[in-house]
Specification:
This protein is α/β, with parallel strands linked by helices. It is built from 11 helices and 8 strands. The protein binds flavin-adenine dinucleotide.
Length: 309
């Protein structure tokens, strides 16, 4: 049977969603509409990014604090080392804790100019590893870190990059979230190396449904994600056809997830870009249903499961 139709009911699936903090009132409304649409999928957490150089410090804080106060979802706040002293970073973390945020995604961060060289702040945390260690002295946070199936572009070697991940885990992170990838085999090969290195925490695949192929191309170049040739062919000619683009994007992301699910993967992290439609479609194809709506497998036969099957 096709991947999409294979029975998957008994295995628990866990999903998490990533958002960026809104810049304008209109974007805030859009984000909250998106959050409310995704909330019934009962994500294990929702994370909010931290702009380059701390440029979104207040907006990230405001967003995670409101998620903590006003929704049923658990927020995770991203935090970076860029252009800040240790005391400044610690103060941001403390404010998260005071707002009820218990989970931090600890990152080195990128320089404010895309593609610029990273220079650690003289009085700051130099790398994500240092931030993970520093956070432990601030409060008892749950800490997630980043992982790179296709190797971080500034890493001296794949082996050193993996060693860096292991050190972040050994320092107290309990989960890694992967950079997005399109070549599912690159994640599989990476996971073989992760396990061989003795890393036993979840390394959750980061899934990016392609909202706009041209934007993804530009961004992938900067962050080291390979865009396979077949993707160029898949999206060719869809520049002015957003409807078809959307359907292709949802199908592609669902196929990625379903293929990983067949391998035994049961946690997925979605880069939502503050849009609910693609992520909802993919989650639906994975078999996730909003909390209030029973799945076919939960229905008794006389309630219609037979007609669905
Ligand atoms: P690190 O783990 O510190 O590694 C960075 C690089 O330095 C790697 O190449 C590593 O191998 C190398 N390295 C580590 N230690 C040393 C050392 N001692 N000497 C020399 N090299 C070393 N960016 C943002 O600005 N805001 C966000 O909110 C954000 N969210 C993200 C979420 C996820 C899930 C991911 C995957 C990335 C995110 N990023 C974000 C991007 C991230 O900040 C960049 O990829 C950044 O370049 C690396 O961050 P890191 O935490 O992986 O760094």
């Amino acid at each position: 049977s096709p991947l999409i139709a294979r029975p998957r009911a008994p295995r628990a699936l866990s999903v998490s969603f990533e958002f960026f903090p809104p810049k304008t009132d209109r974007m805030r409304d859009q984000l909250w509409d998106c959050l409310r649409q995704l909330e019934p999928l009962e994500p294990s957490f929702v994370s909010v990014t931290y702009g380059a150089g701390g440029s979104t410090r207040e907006r990230t804080h405001e967003t995670v604090a409101r998620i903590a106060a006003d929704t049923t979802m658990k927020p995770a706040a991203h935090l970076t080392c860029v252009e800040a002293t240790r005391a400044e970073v610690n103060a941001v973390a403390q404010a998260y804790w005071q707002a009820g945020v218990r989970h931090v995604v600890a990152l080195r961060g990128d320089p404010p100019t895309l593609g610029g060289a990273y220079v650690p702040h003289p009085g700051g945390y130099a790398y994500a590893l240092d931030l993970v260690k520093g956070l432990r002295d601030v409060a008892d946070f749950e800490i997630s870190v980043a992982a790179y199936p296709e190797v971080h572009p500034q890493a001296r070697s794949a082996a050193e990059d993996l060693d860096n991940l292991k050190r972040k885990i050994d320092a107290g992170a309990t989960r890694a979230i992967s950079q997005y990838f399109f070549d599912v085999d690159s994640y599989r090969r990476f996971m073989d190396r992760v396990l061989a290195a003795g890393i036993s925490v979840p390394v959750v695949p980061g899934i990016l449904p392609v909202g706009n192929f041209q934007t993804v191309l530009k961004f992938s170049n900067a962050c080291g994600t390979r865009v396979p040739k077949w993707m160029h062919e898949l999206f060719a000619g869809l520049e002015n056809d957003p409807e078809t683009h959307r359907m292709v994007a949802a199908t592609l992301a669902a196929e990625q997830c379903l293929s990983l699910f067949e391998d035994g993967v049961d946690c997925f992290h979605f880069y939502t870009l503050n849009r609910a439609d693609l992520v909802r479609a993919v989650c639906h194809m994975l078999g996730l249903r909003p909390a209030a709506i029973p799945t076919a497998s939960r229905l008794a036969p006389d309630q219609g499961a037979g007609t669905i099957a």
